[in-house]
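Researcher: I'm preparing a figure for a lab meeting and need a structural model of a single chain. I don't have an experimental structure, so a prediction will have to do for now. The sequence is pasted below. Please return the structure as C-alpha cells so I can convert it later.
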Amino acid sequence: MTLLPIFKYPEEVLRQECEEVTDFDKSLCELLDNMAETMYEAQGIGLAAPQIGVTKQVTVIDVSSEEPLLIEFINPTIVAEEGATSSEEGCLSIPEYRESVKRSENIVVEAFDRTGKPFRMDADGLLSICLQHEIDHLHGILFIDHLSRLKREMFKRWYKKQGGFDE
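Model: Understood. Here is the structure written out cell by cell.
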C-alpha cells in the first residue's frame, strides 16, 4: 500500500464533479487500499478520492472509536434523508479549521462495494454526518460551502492569516 498526498484547499481538484466508477478492477482495489491507509495515517474518519487528486466517486469511512471498521462506498447516492442536526466538522483538506455545519440527521445511502455489488445503508449520528461530508466532496462541495455568509467571511479571514489567498 502507498500513502498518498492529501490535496489542500483551494486545489482545483477539490471543486470538480467526480465521475462514476464503471470498472471494478484491481486498480480500484489498490485505490481503496491506498485511500484507507492515507486516511488512517492522517487520523481522519473519512477520505474522498478528490482529496488525493482522483476524480472518481469513491470514499472510505471509519467512524469507529475502537477496532477499525472501514466502510468503502463507490458511486454513493443519498436516496432518503430526514431530520436535522448541527455538529462541528473538520476536513483533512482544510487542516486546523473546524466549524458547525447543519446536516440531515438520518440518511439512506445506496452504493457499490469494491466488487461491484450494490448495497444500501441506513446511517445516523457521526456516520450520517461523515457520509454527507464525503459525498459532498464527490460533487465538488466543501463543508465551508454550508456555512452562513458571515461564517464564510470569517473563514476567508482565518485562511488569509494562515498564509492562504482568496479563491
